Amino acid sequence: MAQRAGGGLSRRAIITSALALSACGPKNAQGQSVPADLPPLKTVAPFRVGTCVQAMHLADPAMAALLAREVNQLTPEWEMKMEYIVQPDGSFRFDAPDRIAAFARAHGMGLLGHTLIWYAQAPPAFEQLDESRISFVDAYRNYILAVAGRYRGQVVGWDVVNEAVAEDGHGWRDSLWARKLGDFEHIALAYRTAREADPQAPLLLNDYNLEYNPTKRATFLKLAERLLASGAPLTGLGTQMHVAADIAPGQIREMMRDLASLGLPVHVSELDVSLTRAENKLLGRAELSRRQTAVYAEAAEAFMSLPQRQRFAFTLWGLRDRDSWLKKENGADAPAPFDDAGRPKAGAAALVEAFRG
Ligand code: XIL
Description:
The protein is of the alpha/beta class. It has helices spanning 11-21, 41-44, 61-70, 82-85, 95-106, 124-127, 136-150, 176-181, 185-197, 214-229, 251-260, 285-304, 346-356; strands at residues 48-53, 73-76, 110-118, 155-162, 203-207, 236-239, 242-244, 266-274, 311-316. Helix 1 (11-21) packs across helix 13 (346-356), helix 7 packs across helix 9 and helix 12 runs parallel beside helix 13 (346-356).
């Protein structure tokens, strides 16, 4: 087994061993045979391992068992967002996020609050707010205080603001929140208010394409620095990592190095490795699956290269292929580390190898 000078495993070694491992054991849906005794992800990782989940998943015994076996952190996939919580009359509903929180508590799992403020969701109750009855800033603060306050003491962290940086990386996104409360001020206010609601929770800034777009990554880091300079209680950075199997080797490692430069804990917050979003349409399924395994290895290895104090958690955006949001975009995609039946794929074996360090 090739060892690095520093004692760590080379990526080639990780992939080779993952693929070697995948040559011994029952075959999964991809025809990969992965060892039947592959240890659960959470048992080999020196940090929390999570996945997104919907309340309906918890009613599926096979899924509930897979969650309990593999992870020790859950992120509500959409039921802790405004689109679920804020009703047309401005009231709040919490039945589904409460079920997810209860499942996490019952299974000794962390709960990652996702997400308080997102440009993509501005419910009618906010867009049509009767400001003669309540000011916009009070409605904004009340929402954050209510939601972050409800899960105080339960969450291991909050994605306070999600996807604040413009798609092309030049500046920040426009949103109802920015227009009403200020481009920067609405963001800083969200962190201050979340801290008011929960004096302990880590407060994260989360975004995507930080591995693909260096300009966006630089703008993301500048926003984080400006928040810190303003005294906003930002305490961690989330990189979603919705990537494709043909992402150039090394891009993930370069992103991780940049994100670590602020010294804050880093959360791999939504990792999936799409086969069908690959730009290179000449790659066959087998080659895409091989590259997918290599990408899982690089993501885990890059995260492992961070100092322990900067390894917040490693969250997958779906454990099983069948549950992935990407299936809505292309039913042929298979982006997760476990197949539809919950059997580990070579990607899961690669994660185990890298987490073992
Ligand atoms: C997605 C969910 O996976 C979908 O089920 C939902 O319909 C839309 O939102 N970045 C994010 C996540 O921060 O909240 C998004 O989740 C995926 C992109």
